[in-house]
Here is the input.
Amino acid sequence: MGGFNVSEKPLDFLRGFTVDFDLKTGMSKMVDTGKRYLSQMKGMFADEAAFDALLAKGDALVYEFHSMPVPEHEGDLAFGCSIVYPGKVGGEYFMTKGHFHTILDTAEGYYCLGGSGYMLLENEAGDYSAHELAPGQAVYVPKDYAHRSVNTSATEKLVTFFVFRADAGHDYGTIESKGYRRLVVERNGKPEVIDNPKWK
Ligand code: NI
Here is the structure.
């Protein structure tokens, strides 16, 4: 008889599943949504006075991410979407906090679905690169590199899909305490990568 024989279990990591990441109608109830507001980004932007002034005007949504509870097993893959909203703190564009993977020896793929910006990569030895993100472009984040999405559009959301080894884990603490070595800022109306004066 056949039939499609699709599991009725919503997130069937053993038999496969489909999950709705339709950004027009909102995310599927199957995925977890996390939101990061400006007040949760204290210390992440270089210009603290500009940060305080912007926060005084309201607690803007900086980014959100949508993922699912995946078994943390090295043979599984975790995927999701992230959305970075347009905005700036001083000259520095809105961005994600950025992270290393707890298991450093794990890479990640990002595919840009909408908007425009950069994927800022850096490793502990100080090598860095800023890869343009535009709809249809994918970025390979190599193992050992911290990664951060930066939205350089004044009006559009930066939307990306990502996939990584399910047990990779997220280390936010290193970036929270040391910062990024480089920043993406607006100079003369254009994005530019500069040294972070506050990097520790
Ligand atoms: Ni990652």
Summary: The first strand starts at residue 32 and ends at 37. The chain has two helices and 15 strands.
